[in-house]
UniProtKB/TrEMBL annotation:
PROSITE patterns: RRM
Ranges annotated as spanning the membrane: none
Gene3D superfamilies per record: 3.30.70.330
GO MF annotations, alphabetized: poly(A) binding; translation initiation factor activity
InterPro entries listed in its UniProt record: Nucleotide-bd_a/b_plait_sf, RBD_domain_sf, RRM_dom
The species this protein was found in: Salix purpurea
Taxonomic classification: Eukaryota, Viridiplantae, Streptophyta, Embryophyta, Tracheophyta
Family annotation (Pfam families): RRM_1 (PF00076)
Name of the protein: EUKARYOTIC TRANSLATION INITIATION FACTOR 4B/4H
Keyword check for Disulfide bond: no
Length: 188
């Protein structure tokens, strides 16, 4: 019996060794694949030029945004049923239009204004002449599109509400109780 037990133990260790070797081989293959993928990713990033100085790319994108905004106009008071094609037809006489964007809210409803981007900056001056023109029975307001500067959000202070005079402002410490909160009007 003891001889059989010894043979069984030896058989189990012999079986576990090939399984362990297989697992080591698979682990080595996976590590090689990961290294190859990292190498391929680095090569693609180098070709695409995405490995740059972040401040240089930010400055370049800001300059590009300013250049695009110099060729664009803001169109206010646009009818809610107006389509980008109709806005494009209205401004077609000014010059070649690159893009018309009608902004909408999170539910997909138009906000009532649009941006028109032209190919040439000369067309912006022509488009400004269409200020106070009518489209769908509404008088349009056409101005030069402004460029948003990052970090320059305008601060609007909250005005105090005259109807809320009796309540302290938020964050102000509460005054001490004039009467005990546990009694019936007995002073503290």
């Amino acid at each position: 019996m003891e001889g059989d037990d010894v043979d069984m133990d030896a058989a189990e260790t012999n079986e576990s060794v090939p399984e362990l070797d297989d697992m080591k081989k698979r682990l080595k293959e996976m590590e090689d694949e990961a290294a190859a993928l990292l190498e391929m990713q680095a090569k693609v990033e180098k070709e695409m030029g995405s490995v740059q100085d972040p401040s240089a790319s930010t400055a370049a994108s800001q300059a590009n945004r300013e250049e695009v905004d110099s060729r664009s106009v803001f169109v206010g008071n646009v009818d809610y049923l107006c389509t980008p094609e109709e806005v494009q037809q209205h401004f077609q006489a000014c010059g070649t239009i690159n893009r018309v964007t009608i902004r909408s809210d999170k539910y997909g409803q138009p906000k009532g204004y649009a941006y028109v981007e032209f190919l040439e900056s000369v067309a912006v001056q022509e488009a400004l002449l269409l200020n106070e023109s009518e489209l769908h029975g509404r008088q349009l307001k056409v101005t030069v599109k402004r460029t948003n500067l990052p970090g320059m959000k305008q601060f609007r202070a909250r005005r105090p509400n005259p109807y809320m005079m009796g309540f302290p402002p938020r964050g102000a410490p509460m005054p001490p109780y004039l009467f005990s909160p546990y009694g019936y009007g007995y002073p503290i």
